[in-house]
Amino acid sequence: MTREFPDVRQAREEREVIGAFAGRDQLLPALHAVRDRIGWISPNALGLIAASLGIQPAEVAEVVRAHPLFSLAEWPGRQLRVCTGEVCRDAGADTVCDVLTEHVGAAGKAVAGVMWLHGPCLGACEEAPAALAFQAGDPAVRELLAPATGASAVLSTRRPLVPESDVDGRWA
Predict the structure, then answer these.
(1) pLDDT in tens, 90-143
(2) Is 100 in contact with 116 (CB distance < 8 Å)?
(3) pLDDT band at 5 (very low <50, low <70, confident <90, very high)
(4) How far apart are CA 11 and CA 61, in angstroms?
């Protein structure tokens, strides 16, 4: 049995994902594909994307920094984003965030392989407040919590996400 170290496995997976993309117009799809598989954009992935698409690494990094779902810092594969847009804040997102801070930890801090973050609008204003649970992998899994409560948000960080939970495709 061959044992593969995590960083070697991650680099192999990044090469597999990025190999499917060619051309400058594929930058966002390539970044989303890496994030879906790994959870963040590593320096290795950034370089591979730049080389594969014929883009300068600085341009790729600029797009990553500008996009709220991407990170150049290592994030755990399990993430929860709480919408902190105006509608969700008015509907109780601050309470959801307070409960997460109390039971999971500070926003943006990885604890036990999970991190929750304040996030942009998720497009679920009619069911506010909203949160989006995410698990990187093949396939990546997303679960919309709307309306989200403190309890449902905490629970989503502690139980496995099921691929069938993304039934309507809005979050793919």
Answers:
(1) 999 999 999 999 999 999 999 999 999 999 999 999 999 999 999 999 999 999
(2) yes
(3) low
(4) 18
Q: How far apart are CA 161 and CA 113, in angstroms?
A: 14
Residue owning tokens 């390539």: 30
Q: Three-state secondary structure along 27-44?
A: HHHHHHHHHHHHCCCCHH
What is the strand order of the sheet 78-83 is part of? Answer: 114-119, 78-83, 131-135, 141-145
CB 53 within 8 A of CB 21: yes
Helix axes 150-158, 93-103, angle to 10 degrees: 40
Number of alpha helices (DSSP H) and beta strands (DSSP E) in the chain: 7, 4
38 burial (CB, 10 Å; 0-12 / 13-18 / 19+) is buried
Q: Is the pTM of this model over 0.85?
A: no
Domains of the chain, start order: 6-66 (no CATH), 78-165 (3.40.30)
